[in-house]
Amino acid sequence: MGELTGIGPGELLEQAERVAGVIAATAITADGQATWLSASAEPGVARTGDVTLYEGSAGVAWSLAGAAGVLDDARLAGLSVQAARHAVERAPRRAPGPGLYDGLAGIGLAAMAIGDPGLAKAGGALLDTAATLPPQAADLVGGAAGTIVALMATGRHERAVHLGHRLAAMAVRRPWGCFWPDPGEPIGLCGLAHGVAGIVWALAELRHPELDEVVEEGLRYERSWFDPVSGNWPDLRPGASGRRPAMWCHGAAGIGLGRLGLFRTTRHPSAAAEAAVALQVAAADAEHQLSEGVPARGLTLCHGLGGTVELLLTAHEILGEPEHLAAARWILAAALESLGPDPRTWPGGGPDAAGSMGLMTGLAGTLYLLVRAAHPDRLASVGLPGGAPPAG
């Protein structure tokens, strides 16, 4: 990466205030609630009303609440409450599933993080409902793994363990390990969002001896797909042609985060070693993207360079190595210079996500990363939601 001059905390917070200003200016508010336009399934058409942690008002609320505390900005704090109210009130209709990023578990988790007693109570009720629903999938985004993470983060350990046993029973076992395929698919995916990395991390967070074997078998399966030449894992989705990305959702950045989470829980050297490989690959990919010009997915978390920034910040937090913080700030400095001064022109995390304010595909996630990079001891990882907060 050359000399890691990066960007200092003061300038990072100035950039964060600029991004926060765009989020505040684009809010649609009424009756004490706030929402934003977001991409729809129809190309070129935006819509309001998304309530999820991934793209909707719950994720924006989470980001604004974290930023408001560091920036000491009452306006952002108030807007985070409005956004959380929007998500909580509409959750049963708009996102009735139990998932973390696309359902009740994530909305409940965000509501409990805002600091408002009424929202905390409502968020807890959503989580209790999520715990009773049958899992619709196994993964971190919309399945049992994500629900487990939210339950553990809010002290619902017994319910999380019960769901963990159900998740373990869903595994397909083979001589080379176990995996959790989508219905009708012959193999399980690698990766944090929809693959084995996110599932085994969630199971390991339970710290339950009866689940240790399935965690190890899941890791054995994902390791069987590792390519030592590229130092990466393939995207096994139909149509992906086995490419090896370095994103949060698929590939090195997300798998590295999952292994860091495992290391934090288990202190197993193999998890740290795999995280180190992922860090090298993701950082090299980020440097390559920046050398080519404006990164196609900007600093967004799911598909953009934000995933690698979050990986580096989490490595700094868990491993205590300052060079990871320096590398994260270098990527942010280079990306911000490339993207230009107006956050409204920055690319979103998908083909139709330009102008998104969402946590995983838009400016809310970038805001959170900028503040976290300035003060990593003040905000916990957004890439491993619900995990143990940083010391300090």
UniProtKB/TrEMBL annotation:
Which residues are involved in binding Zn(2+)?
Answer: 249, 302-303
Question: What does the entry give for GO biological process?
Answer: carbohydrate metabolic process; peptide modification
Query: What InterPro entries has UniProt attached to this entry?
Result: 6hp_glycosidase-like_sf, LANC-like
SUPFAM superfamilies, alphabetized: LanC-like
Domain of life, source organism: Bacteria
Species name for this entry? Sphaerisporangium rubeum
Keywords in alphabetical order, please: Metal-binding, Zinc
Q: Name one GO cellular component term.
A: plasma membrane
What GO molecular function annotation could you give as one example from this UniProt entry? metal ion binding
Q: Which Gene3D superfamilies match?
A: 1.50.10.10
What is the official name of this protein in its record? Lantibiotic modifying enzyme
